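quick one, 117 residues, struct below
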Amino acid sequence: FSPHHSNLNARFQHISEAIRGFTERTNYEVKVTTNMDLVRLYQDFYSSAITYGKIIISEVNLPAEVKTIKPAAHIGGLAGGEKYMVGGVMFKFAVDSSGMFRGDHSLAAKVAGHDLK
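---
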């Protein structure tokens, strides 16, 4: 991945701030360039989500110490599953990795679903 993938959130914040600052006097070229930056950001996010998501899913049954992308123990609680932080994007994998639901991954998914509301 390119360095542009390394901090998607910082790029999003920068672009959002620029767009919020647009007025009727903002130069057309600036608006086009900023919106193209937003399109590229979306493309980078999509590419990152697909790539990293596939890795996380493919390694679900591996012990944490051998996973390519390690679970982030410092993020959130246990009920919603494992959390991963890659390139400024948080992935939440709704599994009962802590045993809180006695191996019932559907309950972990339900808790994770409530977090989206």
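Residues 28-58 form the longest helix (31 residues).
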